[in-house]
Write a structure and sequence with these properties.
The protein has 77 residues and is mainly α. It is 69% helix and 0% strand.
Length: 77
């Protein structure tokens, strides 16, 4: 019988922290706090979180695209 390993932190996506930072930046620019929006359940909070998520997703796609492009350049002779 194995026991769960509670001493280890849960695994997280590699860019999860960057995603949180981008979302926080977006909602801060709109005059709100990300953590406060996460506990709210009204339509405005949901709309802002949806917009922040879309913004972060677009920025992460840009970061990943640039990373792939740079790797491609480096692999060429």
């Amino acid at each position: 019988m194995t026991r769960p390993d509670t001493d280890r932190a849960p695994l997280e996506e590699p860019l999860a922290e960057l995603e949180r930072q981008l979302m926080s930046q977006y909602v801060a620019a709109a005059g709100h706090d990300l953590h406060a929006l996460l506990v709210r359940h009204d339509d405005e909070a949901r709309r802002l979180l949806t917009e922040a998520s879309a913004y972060a997703s677009a920025k992460l796609t840009e970061v990943e695209s640039r990373s792939h492009y740079l790797r491609e350049l480096q692999s060429k002779p």
